[in-house]
Amino acid sequence: MKKELIFNQRINVTQPKLPDYKMYTELLKEIWENKWLTNDGPLHERFKEQVKKTLLVENAELFTNGHLALEIALKSLDLSGEVITTPFTFASTTHAISNCGLTPVFCDIDPLTYNIDPDKIEQLITPNTSAIVAVHVFGTPCDVGRIEEIAKKHQLKVIYDAAHAFGVEINGQGIGSFGDISMFSLHATKVFHSIEGGLLTYKEKRLAAKIKSLKNFGITSPETVDYIGTNAKMNEFQAAMGLCNLESIRNDIHSRGKVYEAYLEGLNDLPLVRTLIQQDGVKPNYAYFPMVLPSREERDQLFESLKGYNVFARKYFYPLCNQFSCYKNFGFETPIAKDISDGVLCLPMYADLKVEQVQQITEIIKLELGEQLE
Ligand code: T4K
Questions:
Q1: Nearest CA to 86 among 307, 322, 256?
Q2: What is the best residue among 98, 189, 190, 245 to mutate for testing ligand 1's pocket, by most ligand atoms within 8 Å of CB?
Q3: What digits encode the pLDDT tens for the residues 75-106?
């Protein structure tokens, strides 16, 4: 350990981007004037229109958080039985499926993108399968073309958990325009946030009324309740934060790109470390910087030693969802996902992280991995 490499302040895996304080308080004044705090207020409506333009989508609805948005997406499509999904994700994805009374069926992942492997989906399809819930993990797009083909062939719905993928485009098309529905998380820890928040983008306009109703207790008119809904509405304070953060989203992604390049440069001479691949035609958002070490022991050792330097990386996503005590009896082997999950470590990644700080982090990693090898 080199004392001069210890950071004075804690460097976390992420840090929320906060807008100009005055800009936010100007919008708060509007809330005070309107006396409208939640339930489709004027800032909510403005935010929704602007976010649609940013994401290049036609249909969108806002929610209080991403998890409830995902549950509503599943409910709105009247699914039943089994849903094929990835185990390499945050607990939310699998829990949303289970909370809707559906059974998650875990499919292994692609070793380069860490996303659900389309080659392994069809063998898991049974007469009870109704949908595929794929995750654009770390903001890397799934193989949307292959997934669509499989879904069409077997008449399955496709929902993308795009929690990490705000702003990502594939050949100039917004990532939220693929599949039946996509869910974006607007949580404080994300590339773009509204404190807490969620967003659904969807293909068929006819879903609008049902999705809106499901987030408002299933109410369909003042005297009718047609669905067993919930309360998942975004409030005006969240919408105000979203509106402010939209102003800087392009610059924020650009700054993240610089961080990403600095990591690649600093780590590329470490033969034992794998990092995310970049895909042709994809406009990335640099949501996370995952590195994968050859074994769990090496990953855990580095994770612990980084803490000594005040660097708090995270093991996203370890353990796998199919290793959680609540799912481990489901009985699906996913060896590639296990390998990635055992070795993965997400390094600090946020717009305000300085290139010099990244250089210091990569220097620490090289030093510590060098010492591990000795
Ligand atoms: N699907 C996927 C694939 C997801 O990754 C997620 C959420 C969802 C669905 C559900 O979306 P939401 O319902 O959350 O909208 C964090 C986030 O809470 C969670 O949103 C996210 N995924 C997950 C990957 O990461 P934790 O338990 O790691 O959060 P926490 O509190 O440990 O924070 C992480 C780091 O961020 C800490 O080092 C400190 C820093 N931080 C955090 C907050 C909240 C700050 O500096 N300031 C803050 O305000 O889950």
A1: 322
A2: 189
A3: 999 999 999 999 999 999 999 999 999 999 99
| Protein residue with its CA nearest to atom 33 in ligand 1 | 189
Q: What distance in angstroms lies between residue 111's CA and the mean position of ligand 1's atoms?
A: 24
In 10 A of CB 261, how many CB atoms?
13
CA 262 – CA 257 distance, rounded (Å): 9
Q: Which domains, and CATH codes, for the chain?
A: 3-14+248-373 (3.90.1150.10), 21-246 (3.40.640.10)
Contacts of residue 259, Cβ cutoff 8 Å, sequence gap at least 6:
286, 289, 349, 350, 351, 353, 355, 358
- Buried/exposed code over 196-218 (b: 16+ C-beta within 10 A; e: otherwise): bbbbbbbbeeebeebbbbbbbeb
Q: Helices 355-373 and 236-267 sit at what angle, rounded to 10 degrees?
A: 50
User: How far apart (Å, rounded) are the C-alpha atoms in residues 322 and 329?
Assistant: 8
Question: pTM (2 decimals)?
Answer: 0.97
Q: Are 164 and 284 in contact, with CB atoms under 8 Å apart? A: no
